[in-house]
Amino acid sequence: xxxxxxxxxxxxxxxxxxxxxxxxxxxxxxxxxxxxxxxxxxxxxxxxxxxxxxxxxxxxxxxxxxxxxxxxxxxxxxxxxxxxxxxxxxxxxxxxxxxxxxxxxxxxxxxxxxxxxxxxxxxxxxxxxxxxxxxxxxxxxxxxxxxxxxxxxxxxxxxxxxxxxxxxxxxxxxxxxxxxxxxxxxxxxxxxxxxxxxxxxxxxxxxxxxxxxxxxxxxxxxxxxxxxxxxxxxxxxxxxxxxxxxxxxxxxxxxxxxxxxxxxxxxxxxxxxxxxxxxxxxxxxxxxxxxxxxxxxxxxxxxxxxxxxxxxxxxxxxxxxxxxxxxxxxxxxxxxxxxxxxxxxxxxxxxxxxxxxxxxxxxxxxxxxxxxxxxxxxxxxxxxxxxxxxxxxxxxxxxxxxxxxxxxxxxxxxxxxxxxxxxxxxxxxxxxxxxxxxxxxxxxxxxxxxxxxxxxxxxxxxxxxxxxxxxxxxxxxxxxxxxxxxxxxxxxxxxxxxxxxxxxxxxxxxxxxxxxxxxxxxxxxxxxxxxxxxxxxxxxxxxxxxxxxxxx
Length: 552
What we know:
Number of strands: 23
CATH architecture of the largest domain: 3-Layer(aba) Sandwich
Radius of gyration: 23 Å
Strand order of the largest sheet: 7-8-6-10-13-15-16
Oligomer: single chain
Number of helices: 14
């Protein structure tokens, strides 16, 4: 059985070191400098970690002593192996992406039928103009919940993602500029030319779109324009940990999590998963010694950061992933590394490999449902990892009905106009093009400020539905936060209320679900295990915003 990552689950480099650390002076001819993320071994002081990095031939560029994570540069080609051999360091990970906004499902399949549009037949009663297209609002009773609790502006939700377009009139009223921070400077090699001097995009922008979409589902304002979110009165905090290209590196993610803990952020949504390794393993025999050390460093750094944030009152939600597999019985990984190397087959040991951050400690894992309430064919599942389920969209839902393979089965939310223009879905004058018709919407305030909205699907869209309910719980039951202002609530209590009020949903019959009629291969077949109270498709149930805030 693969357990959630807990303290002590990772063997430290101290216990693994068997090589003699070579002095930095005995180096090979230097090459171009490379950036690394280095993680100190458990119990090693900041001073000793810094000394070990220097001895291995590295120079510290930035540091997060709270969790023992360091950004390092070195021109020494042997730095990575020396760091792995040091008893003071777990390992060094070259600056390769370790997280990726899972758009293989969210964008590609959306494009299958751009012009079919949403039928609106799944939608709730209209609140904002586009709310009749938000079937997810009614599925989790968020439209009813706001009669009791629409969110407290003192409750902060961190969007740990690719950014947040604060110019959208649905996001601007709830955007917290003071707390927002960019931890991920542009890297021209993967993000393209920097838009600003210093390559650090200003907060309130999003050159990818993924973060803006998740933010709208959580907290778009109910203000008579566009659409409204699950918790339309809370505050949204941009924690930019993802690159413009959609990749997530270790140190920005770790820094964002520790920042959230230090600044009293109540909820953090993480709609990304770990790259370049689909699973990070402690000692996969298919991996090189250097890659094994790198993965151990990632596992340890993420564990520390998640525990740090949890101890400081942050409730964390994450997407369960779009690889259509039982995370308790993973298939052989043939996709890793999917950045910075050539993929190869990696058999995955269930007890020593983790899908991060969703399998990290204290993280609420969310699976995806379509409008019918069925598990989306792409969604991961499994009793060892799942916590709850939520609307994430499913383009292929509704087989045998007019809604089959229509974008109305997906999740509509806020999106940056800049990105839509780059995709050819909006023209230079801000008008929706023929290509964007039916999948992109534009709505403007009386003052002429326009917001843009589009459909995506994925567990990335399910997680913010659950995070929004978490924000409502803190708004309803949280206590005054005298240290940071606003409200606060112990994550364990948020989690308890979320699970206690989720709408229980039994496994389907037959329990073996085939998606053949939707055009999927047998690889997508999924068997639901467990009881009505807790099972591998729905966890403790479908999140219920109305029940969560005291509705009956």
